[in-house]
Structures are given as C-alpha cells and as structure tokens.
Amino acid sequence: MKSKKRLIEKIALERINILLRLARENLKINPKRSARYVLLARKIAMRANIHIPKELKRMFCKNCNSILIPSLTLRVRLKRGKKRLVYTCLKCGKITRNPFGKRFK
Q1: Residues 6+ apart with CB under 8 A from 37
Q2: How many domains does the chain have?
Q3: pTM for the whole structure
Q4: Vertex 63: Cα angle to 76 and 11 (nearest 5)
Q5: By C-alpha distance, which of 72, 90, 69, 75 is closest to 24?
Q6: Of 83, 84, 85, 102, which is least packed with CB atoms within 10 Å of its CB?
Q7: Could you tell me the CATH number of the domain that includes residue 98?
C-alpha cells in the first residue's frame, strides 16, 4: 500500500516539474498557456495530496498562477530590519513575504 502511494507521489512530482518548466519556457510566447500549466501543476499536487517543494512553490503567484521571474513578472525587495524578502507580482499586485538569513537557510 505504501509503495503504491510513493509511486503516485513520484509520478506527480515529475509531472509538476515538467509543467512548471513548460510554464517558464512559454511565459513570453503565451502567458495564458503558462498560467494554465501552473494551474494544472497545482491541481496534480492537490489530487495526489502532496506538497509542492518550497523552491518550486516560490516560482509562481498563488493568486493569478503566473510564473514569477524577477523584473519580468516579479519585483523583489529586501526588508533588512525585519529580515524579509518581499515579492510583488507585477500582474496582480499580490505581495508575498518570505524570511531570509542564517536562521532560515
């Protein structure tokens, strides 16, 4: 039973990786298709009941499903006093704050 679940998780992660790679490649050519790929990747994760890895989760906007690429679809700011990275999606304006520093590596 556990091996079947692990197999499903492995296949789902492979598909999520492929979809997010395709979304990144198609962003300039067709932004709507790129957003659709992100939406499909999120649906696969929900259906397989798995978490998308942190480094992949930070690649897209949770509000508009846009791939986040600095200066193209994303503005990045540092708040040194609070030790936070502030990401702003340039398509929908959604703000995401992530901690950074020695403690959060």
Answers
A1: 19, 20, 22, 23, 26
A2: 1
A3: 0.85
A4: 95
A5: 69
A6: 102
A7: 1.20.5.420
Contact assessment for residue 18 and residue 61, using Cβ atoms and an 8 Å cutoff: no
Identity (one letter) of the amino acid at 79?
Answer: K
Per-residue pLDDT at 25 exceeds 90: yes
For the stretch 38-86, pLDDT in tens is: 999 999 999 999 999 989 999 999 999 999 999 999 999 998 888 899 9
Backbone phi, psi, residue 4, to 5°: -65, -40
Residues 9 and 81: their CA atoms lie apart, in Å, by 39
CA 23 – CA 35 distance, rounded (Å)? 7
Q: Which of 45, 48, 49, 47 is closest to 59 using CA atoms?
A: 45
Neighbour count for residue 36 (Cβ, 10 Å): 16
Domain of 57, in residue numbers: 2-104
